[in-house]
UniProtKB/TrEMBL annotation:
SUPFAM superfamilies: NAD(P)-binding Rossmann-fold domains. It comes from the Bacteria. GO terms for molecular function: oxidoreductase activity. It comes from Neorhizobium alkalisoli. This is Short subunit dehydrogenase. InterPro entries: NAD(P)-bd_dom_sf, SDR_fam.
Length: 134
């Protein structure tokens, strides 16, 4: 995976929750192909979701982008923590978090928290975009 954009700038990284299907997949594709971002597509542990996430990744990579699909149920703090650690190890840091799926109310209860996971200093600062429909 190329760490720099076509213009020579370091690539930023976006985690797109819900990026494995529907509107979220379209958001992941656009960010990965039109905006030179590394894309992380979390998927829940169902075969159909895994294959959908892998298809989105393949489409992004076929157009010259960088992407990876990772198992991560947003309701499971261990999954979310592992997702951010893996994404950070692969791409250096996470710059943007996109919510394109329904997420639990607990996430909204405390800023800077995902399913009870306190975002640590090396993960702090990602821009958070809520792309869900009201």
């Amino acid at each position: 995976m190329e760490p720099f954009t076509r213009s020579g700038r370091p690539r930023r990284t976006a985690v797109v929750f819900g990026g494995d299907c529907g509107r979220g997949a379209e958001i992941a594709r656009r960010l990965g192909t039109q905006h030179d971002l590394n894309i992380v597509v979390p998927f829940i542990p169902f075969d159909r979701k895994r294959s959908c996430a892998n298809e989105v990744v393949a489409e992004i990579e076929a157009q010259g982008g960088c992407a990876m699909a990772l198992l991560a149920d947003i309701n499971n703090p261990a999954h979310v923590e592992a997702l951010f650690k893996t994404a950070t190890a692969a791409f250096g840091k996470v710059d943007i978090v996109v919510y394109a799926q329904s997420i639990p109310d607990a996430v909204h209860a405390k800023p800077g928290r995902l399913s009870g996971l306190e975002i640590t200093a090396d993960l702090a600062g990602p821009e958070i975009l809520d792309m869900r429909r009201p």
